[in-house]
Amino acid sequence: MPTSTDLRFCGFWPHATAETAGRHPVLPETGEPDELRRTVPPETGEPDDLRGTGRPAPAVVTVVPADLLLDGLTDERRLREVGLHRDEDDERSIGDLVARQIEQADAVVLTGDLEDAWETEQLRTLLRRLAPWAHHPRPGDVPAAARGRAEPVDAVGRGLRGYAVGVHEPVPSHGVSACVFRARRPFHPGRLHDALDEVTAGVLRSRGHFWLASRPDLVMTWESAGTLSIGPHSGWLAELPREHWDEVDVERRLAADLDWDPYYGDRHHQLSFTGIDIDPVRLHRTLAGCLLTDDELSRGEEHWRRLPDPFRRAYPAPAVTEA
């Protein structure tokens, strides 16, 4: 099993190759690029805040050992179990950390080819599916095109700001498939809860956001790497008076305006799934079967809010009166 030092990302790396990583700052092994983008380490000689300065942000590069990638992504151990948690509230697993260090990077470099060339190419394909927005140079190549970004765009919140949460590549390449599930009508909380094991079976990484019929005012986030984590994120703009929209991130406002639905407003699902030998068609059918039926939808929001909601035990919603 991977240890805490098996996979780490190299820090702000504007003009470097994997072989020269030792001459550039290395970020803490349990850190995440998006947490550190606003602050440049002092040894770079750059100002603390690059936003608004006109200077290009230096790139964050994740260096991935080929022989440890799959073990790292599927490691369900909490960081606290290996003594690497930041504080008592740190519930991340090793799999969560590995996935975020990959997908939040500006460039991802796979090092250490496996004995089987086909399996090495499988890992390269997997990394491209996990971080389609990143550059993927070969070891030894200078990632000249890898420009950094100063503003974090976390994977589970990308869709709310108009960014892609993943790629839809359902036809396998070297056994790796990726798919994106999009829909407007809400999930039935009971059916979705019952289908969670089936939905996540064989999936190496999933992320995005969704909404439940029983709590139509709440954006829920979805993230898995080994284990599934679901939690409240924010409210939908459909529930926010228009005069308060200026208080919301401008990219999210623009994305909501462009994709506004007369009935649902900005409410929608956008979930990305990546894995080896997964069946995207089955996955889509399973999730579609968790949506409200026409009959359930026609009964309206008052009925939706009274649906049995197993998620309430972990994420309480405002109390409703049972019919």
Please explain how this structure is put together.
- The protein is of the alpha+beta class and 323 residues long.
- The chain folds into two domains: 144 residues, no CATH class; 158 residues, 2-Layer Sandwich (Hypothetical Protein Yjia, Chain: A,domain 2), CATH 3.30.1220.10.
- The protein contains nine helices and nine strands.
- The strands form two sheets. The protein has a six-stranded antiparallel sheet, with helices on both faces. A three-stranded mixed sheet has the order 1-2-3, covered by helices on one side.
- The radius of gyration is 21 Å and the shape is globular.
- The N terminus and C terminus are likely disordered.
Task: Quickly list its features.
three-stranded mixed sheet, 323 residues, 9 strands, six-stranded antiparallel sheet, single chain, disordered N terminus
Strand and helix map with partners:
Blueprint: E1 8-12, H1 33-36, E2 60-65, H2 69-73, H3 94-103, E3 107-111, H4 117-130, E4 169-173, E5 176-183, H5 189-200, E6 203-210, E7 218-225, E8 227-235, H6 250-258, E9 269-276, H7 280-288, H8 294-298, H9 301-305
Parallel strand pairs: 2-3
Antiparallel strand pairs: 1-2, 4-5, 5-9, 6-7, 6-9, 7-8
* Architecture (CATH level 2) name of the largest domain: 2-Layer Sandwich
- Strands, total number: 9
> Which consecutive residue ranges, at least 5 long each, have pLDDT under 50?
1-23, 41-54, 318-323
Question: What is the overall pLDDT average?
Answer: 83
Radius of gyration, taken over Cα atoms and rounded to an integer in Å: 21 Å
Within CATH, the superfamily of the largest domain carries the name: CobW-like, C-terminal domain
**Elements, N to C (H/E):** EHEHHEHEEHEEEHEHHH
Strand content: 15-25%
Placed side by side, the strands forming the largest sheet appear as 4-5-9-6-7-8
Structural classification: alpha+beta
Number of helices: 9
Number of structural units classed as domains: 2
CATH top level assignment of the largest domain: Alpha Beta
> Which word captures the global form?
globular
Helicity level:
10-25%
Our measurement of the CA-to-CA distance between the termini, rounded to an integer number of angstroms, reads 51 Å
> Main sheet, how many strands, which sense, barrel?
6 strands, antiparallel
